[in-house]
């Protein structure tokens, strides 16, 4: 596997044995790279040094769920999965654009993802992709002679790679006498999809409400059935479904108001009724939840 079959130095014609199922992915003045593996597999990359005819396997961590691209930049193997950014993938999916140095046998991350790439006439690589630090755009990967190629953003789309909140519809004051006692909260996101969780906490009582959403659009919406009057804090977390970039966390607050209800001892906007059972135990029931009274022990 990988040994030279023939080499003709004068006209530069060369042929090599490659592993079964592998295809040549990239050729440079110094190296030949071939790879094997397709969607939903763990890919393999082999690198041949044209000066010595020696072959080494490039270590690849993570499985491929989509296309797999391998290129050469100044003797470094640059590889990544394509099409990950707009898809829903498992956490083990290979997404990073990485560069492998055959001399030091080390791998360095270049970008957080890529969708396509093209080799320039000078041997550099133009990559359409993104990084959490600099966002989406066209990047140029250039050999420098150092361990890691240089990565330069040459054209930005203005879009973030990390998921962000682009708009929030959470009123400062929530009047639960309106809309049947339900409040609708909406957050617009920079991109879909994401797994989102909304946590609402009542400041005075510590009551904690949690809701989950799995939108396939760049927006998450929750219908809250309400609780006590008074001040609340909220926290939204959004985990990118493609696992590119960190978990988003956004926070805020609002105040719930209602008209005063008679006998509303817990201040949740509905009357309470006290009951005593045959043993003398006192119970409280809240009329908010059902047309039939259901008692809660008061102590």
Describe this structure in words.
This protein has 299 residues and is mainly beta. The protein is built from no helices and 25 strands. A hairpin with a 5-residue loop joins strand 11 and strand 12 (125-131). The chain is elongated. Residues 1-10 have low confidence and may be disordered.
Topology diagram in text:
Blueprint: E1 4-8, E2 13-16, E3 23-27, E4 31-36, E5 44-49, E6 54-58, E7 67-73, E8 76-82, E9 97-101, E10 106-111, E11 113-119, E12 125-131, E13 135-142, E14 150-156, E15 165-169, E16 173-175, E17 183-189, E18 194-202, E19 208-213, E20 219-224, E21 230-240, E22 248-257, E23 272-276, E24 282-286, E25 295-297
Parallel strand pairs: 16-22
Antiparallel strand pairs: 1-2, 3-4, 4-5, 5-6, 7-8, 8-9, 9-10, 11-12, 12-13, 13-14, 15-17, 17-20, 18-19, 18-21, 21-22, 23-24, 24-25
List keywords for this structure.
0% helix; disordered N terminus; mainly beta; elongated; five-stranded mixed beta sheet; four-stranded antiparallel beta sheet
Q: Quickly give the structural class.
A: mainly beta
Rounded Rg: 30 Å
**How much strand content do the residues show?**
over 45%
- How does the major sheet shape up? 5 strands, mixed
Characterize this entry briefly.
0% of the residues lie in helices and 52% in strands.
């Amino acid at each position: 596997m990988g040994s030279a079959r023939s080499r003709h130095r004068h006209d530069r014609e060369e042929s090599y044995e490659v592993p079964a199922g592998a295809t040549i992915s990239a050729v440079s003045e110094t190296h030949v790279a071939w790879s094997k593996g397709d969607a939903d597999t763990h890919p393999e990359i082999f690198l041949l040094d044209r000066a010595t005819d020696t072959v080494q396997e490039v270590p690849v961590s993570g499985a491929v769920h989509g296309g797999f691209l391998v290129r050469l930049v100044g003797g470094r193997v640059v590889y990544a999965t394509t099409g990950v950014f707009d898809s829903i993938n498992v956490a083990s999916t290979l997404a990073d654009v990485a560069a492998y140095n055959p001399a030091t046998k080390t791998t360095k991350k270049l970008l957080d993802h890529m969708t396509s790439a093209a080799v320039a006439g000078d041997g550099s690589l133009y990559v359409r992709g993104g990084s959490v630090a600099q966002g989406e755009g066209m990047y140029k990967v250039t050999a420098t002679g150092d361990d890691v190629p240089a990565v330069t953003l040459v054209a930005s789309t203005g879009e973030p790679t990390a998921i962000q909140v682009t708009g929030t519809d959470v009123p400062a004051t929530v009047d639960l006498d309106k809309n049947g006692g339900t409040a609708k909260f909406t957050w617009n996101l920079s991109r879909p999809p994401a797994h989102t969780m909304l946590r609402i906490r009542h400041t005075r009582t510590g009551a904690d409400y949690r809701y989950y959403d799995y939108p396939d659009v760049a927006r998450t919406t929750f219908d809250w059935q309400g609780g006590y009057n008074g001040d609340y804090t909220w926290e939204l977390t959004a985990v990118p479904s493609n696992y590119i970039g960190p978990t988003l966390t956004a926070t805020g607050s609002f105040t719930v108001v209602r008209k005063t209800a008679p006998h509303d001892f817990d201040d949740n906007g509905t009357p309470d009724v006290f009951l005593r059972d045959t043993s003398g135990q006192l119970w409280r029931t809240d009329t908010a939840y059902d047309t039939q009274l259901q008692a809660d022990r008061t102590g």
